[in-house]
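Figure-free illustration: sequence to structure, shown twice.
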Amino acid sequence: MTFDPQWLSRYAAQDPVANTESSCVFCGIVRGEVDAHVIAETADTLCFLDHLPATYGHVLVVPKQHCRDLFDIPEESFQHVMAAAKQVANSLQDSCGASGINLVHATGQAAHQTVFHFHIHVVPRYDGDSIVVFPRLADPARKEEVAQRLRTALNNPLPPKAEAESSQS
């Protein structure tokens, strides 16, 4: 049995390839064309309540600039989103009594990204709320293998995509 996250969404399924700023629901929220419960805004970010919250106070933080996912967002925009997420988290603790916070992000269909505009879920946690965030399914015996792969990749980063593509010509 496979999980289809689309049943959770009131928004039409987005084609991850064809998704552009003009067809993006979060860009529509940023432009004021789609209703949302906006709670905060900066020059670079917008924060609004998730339309199907996991817990009381579940907020989404998005860059105003359309960025598809973690691989697409510029570093400066990412920093603005994370700063806003931290402010929202502090507010959730102060105003809603959250005893913990999960920051959740999904990039790509395999990770169940359903809206192809970078966003961070700021999910307040409350004692006894029973949400399981990370079921432990990976094989712990493969830690050394994956650690070595990551060390190699982090110490020998790939060239930017444009340079790599032009060098193959």
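We now fold a second protein in the same way, so the two outputs can be compared directly.
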Amino acid sequence: MISEKYDAVSPVIGVMLMLVVTIIIAAFVSAFAGDAFGNTETAPSAAIDVKMISDGGDHKDQYVMLIEHHGGSSIPTSDLRIVGYYTPPASTKKTMQRGEVTSSTKAVRGMIIHDEEISSVKIPYLNDVACGTPGDDETNFGEYTFSSGDVMSTGGSKGTSTVLGFDISTPEKRNEYGFVRGSAVDVEIIHLPSQKSLFSGRVIVQ
């Protein structure tokens, strides 16, 4: 009789243990999912346009990328990643080139902007004399907030090389990659906290 009682209790204990384990696992999964989805940020909404000109600079001989904010959310540039892709003509026998800029990208040294040599500037800088000149902390990429009406600039061919991932600072270097007026560059601007794209498009060098 005693044996029969224990035999009846054993399955009940087993079921209860399984329930406890299931509840613990469910609580763990729920907590993990809450962390994973609760920390996701909403991407800001902004109208951004990107241009690339081949006649920039004081002497109209520089390849300059301009990123314009036409309205919407103000965005700290420390939250941005700018990526450029360029596929050289087949005749150059070069593979696709990729460049990337974030707030941690090294500053460009020795750029000539407005006929002055800038010892160090983080590209793209804020093109607003009211905030400072290129190379000032207030205009260095990663230090300012990109707001409606603002324009970011690479300043010249040397600065644009940082975004493209290859050297276009001289005519010889540009010819090596077949990079000329009319070339196409694919540009993407990513909001890092949300990992959402704020701009993605093909930019033709004007």
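Summary for the second example: Confidence is low (pLDDT under 50) at residues 33-38.
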